[in-house]
Write a structure and sequence with these properties.
This protein is mainly α. It is built from two helices and no strands. The longest helix is centred in the N-terminal third of the chain and has 18 residues. The N and C termini lie far apart (58 Å).
């Protein structure tokens, strides 16, 4: 029983974990770089 349970949680957690943080993280990093470059000010 622990084999199917871990297999279902592994892809779900791995898919939601890396898919959720990269979206907001990439936006924050992009905003910071643009702000530093003066793109947002322009």
């Amino acid at each position: 029983t622990p084999t199917p349970t871990q297999r279902i949680i592994t892809p779900d957690s791995m898919r939601q974990t890396p898919n959720r943080p990269p979206a907001p993280t990439a936006t924050i990093i992009g905003d910071s770089i643009r702000f530093n470059n003066g793109y947002m000010s322009d």
